[in-house]
Design goal:
Length: 319
């Protein structure tokens, strides 16, 4: 049980999750109080929130589990269906991290208040929520939050990951059954057979690549290679980078895929088939990127000019 941040003698796992869920929403007056309760160093600011959740990493299951790598779509519909199966009206953003954590906390509280068969059913629902809609994406997401910020949200991500890992281990999560999101996930299109446009679209979908590619990653690549980086959504910026030095950019992205794949591997002992799934996807992505780099990126030249997608622009991604 987490003890490095906050006081485990005061906060139960459910209380920790309830408090931590608030930090996935824009900062308000209660954040200062919760910062003290959780023992975090500083309270997040609106600027901190925008920098990490509006321009880098999006706290929505559909972004990480959907084939488009954007909010909405079939992945969100599956999450909304889960809310409905529990007899609840889905909120406007049923796949937002704060909403999913709030639902998990509510189920845990109901489980504690019930007995017998009713308690068993609620516990099964809580396990299904964790297995199907949280664990497949949240650990990689939180790890990347910690990589991109050392401030309030870095500490928040570390503590939330620790608490959720405790929940996963308590349920004995690391089995062979894949969540439906992953069973239905298509692989990354190979541009040599399916065209450059499909490949570039798939490259920004974590469930297809095993890689969460952020604006910060593209900025790092552009800086290392002394290339220009255009403002705008990731797809547009990525196309511009590839147009300048395709082989070098592809090699840099392959390195990143290998790095994130190795991190997925570290979770296999407790996250089981989910970690293995994403590690395998990252390995395939790295292989394809390396092979394309050897070819000089020629297959990508079929990619069409691409206007801003609404899915990212709605998150402020054009900034």
């Amino acid at each position: 049980m987490p003890g490095s941040v906050g006081d485990p003698e005061v906060l139960t796992p459910v209380e920790l999750l309830r408090s931590l869920a608030v930090f996935a929403e824009p900062p308000g007056p209660e954040h200062a109080r919760l910062t003290e309760v959780l023992g975090l160093a500083t309270a997040p600011t609106s600027s901190d929130y925008s920098d990490i959740f509006l321009f880098q990493l999006y706290p929505y299951a559909s972004v990480h589990l959907g084939p488009e790598g954007m909010m909405g779509g079939e992945a969100r519909d599956r999450v909304a269906g889960f809310w409905g199966a529990l007899g609840q009206i889905p909120p406007a953003e049923p796949d937002h991290l704060a909403a999913l954590l709030g639902l998990y906390v509510g189920l845990a509280e109901r489980e504690a208040a019930l007995g017998g068969a009713e308690r068993t059913l609620v516990r099964q629902s809580r396990h299904a929520l964790l297995h199907e809609h949280l664990a497949p994406w949240v650990f990689a997401f939180l790890h990347r939050v910690g990589e991109l910020t050392e401030g309030a949200y870095g500490s928040w991500a570390a503590l939330l990951s620790e608490v959720l890992r405790h929940e996963v281990v308590a349920f004995g999560y690391g089995g062979d059954a894949l969540p439906l999101h992953l069973r239905l996930a298509e692989a990354l299109p190979d541009p040599r057979t399916e065209g450059g446009k499909a490949f570039l679209e798939g490259l920004l979908a974590p469930v297809r690549t095993g890689v969460i590619l952020t604006r910060a990653d593209l900025a790092r690549v552009s800086g290392a290679l002394d290339l220009g980086l255009r403002a705008g959504e990731r797809r547009y910026a990525l196309e511009h980078l590839l147009a300048q030095e395709p082989a070098a950019v592809l090699r840099a992205l392959a390195v990143e895929a290998g790095r994130q794949g190795a991190i997925h591997e570290t979770r296999r002992t407790w996250l089981g088939s989910v970690a293995a799934f994403f590690a395998q996807r990252a390995r395939v992505t790295k292989t394809v990127l390396d092979e394309l780099a050897v070819d000089g990126g020629a297959p990508l030249q079929a990619a069409e000019d691409h206007p801003t997608h609404g899915g990212e622009a709605s998150l402020g991604a054009s900034a």
